């Protein structure tokens, strides 16, 4: 087309988003909260405190059941749902930053072994893994400026797949005969829109937080800095028993932003999980409404004894939530969700986010299997 030539073409946008035009601030806040399963819920692991359960005789440390510690008023909160999580069947093995295996002394790691937290007849249920000195933390997520809105390796990152599988069409029918299905129906809209993250370059991380080049959250002062300490630091060792440092708690890395349905054409859309209409008649989501998503990464926070050997903070698990906006109102969203901006991402009342971990034991050919279960996680995003 030659210089100075212009002509307007009439047409409608394929996907004009509704309720999606508000400009966000440069930063948003995140509050995380966890609680324990009770004795009436059949769980084999969970998020527990340092003290002893008052139900047990004799008392056992690290079995204190944390009650739900955030119950929001329904008229000021809109709710997101779980989109997906990392596998709760693939067993995790811990490694140092250099890739070598982490080892534990059997006596030192004993507090992480499965322990009954309920009296008879419920004592078949066990607390497994570390216990925690607090059950909540907070932090912030900052967006990059418009002229620097890209992240290193962002386009190579594979977001957590959905738990809900929906039909998908592949027009190259020779490769995909119906019915095809997908668990990747909601994508993050960045770089078209901004992402909000707690560090400048999260996508450099493949196995350990330190790969990002940012300091690992480690301060629990006033419950802040995206960090929740263990009741006691856990010593970690090399295979020959050499002390290398400690795991001191859980550090978190959140990524939040606008999302979009991958292929917004009927019938290849997920059902509206906010609809009161039960399956099989549940209506599909409207792809023109606003979608937002948050993905949360969890790490064991490592500290080193030797400055020449970095313990590293291994990536343990990932979970992803999403909001489907029904603004200015609808089931679970009784008002315009943007004013005030408060989204509570959670699953069910006693949700499991379990990760099995094999802890190598020095002098033993059999690892100790624990389960880190971040039960009943709530992610509140606000201004």
Task: Explain the overall architecture.
With 383 residues, the chain is mostly beta strands. The protein has one domain. Helices cover 1% and strands 33% of the residues. Strands 1-9-13-15-16-17-4-18-21 form a 9-stranded mixed barrel. β14 and β15 form a beta hairpin. It starts with 26 loop residues before the first strand and ends with a strand.
Summed up, the domain count is: 1
Which oligomeric form is depicted? single chain
Q: Structural class of the helices, strands and pairings?
A: mainly beta
Helix content: under 10%
The spatial strand order of the largest sheet comes to: 1-9-13-15-16-17-4-18-21
Radius of gyration, taken over Cα atoms and rounded to an integer in Å:
23 Å
Structure in a nutshell:
The protein has 383 residues and is mainly β.
Topology summary:
Layout: E1 27-33, E2 48-49, E3 64-65, E4 78-85, E5 92-93, E6 103-104, H1 106-109, E7 115-116, E8 126-127, E9 136-143, E10 166-168, E11 180-182, E12 186-188, E13 195-197, E14 227-237, E15 243-261, E16 291-304, E17 315-324, E18 342-346, E19 354-361, E20 368-373, E21 378-382
Parallel strand pairs: 4-18, 5-19, 6-19
Antiparallel strand pairs: 1-9, 1-21, 2-3, 4-17, 7-8, 9-13, 10-11, 12-15, 13-15, 14-15, 15-16, 16-17, 18-21, 19-20
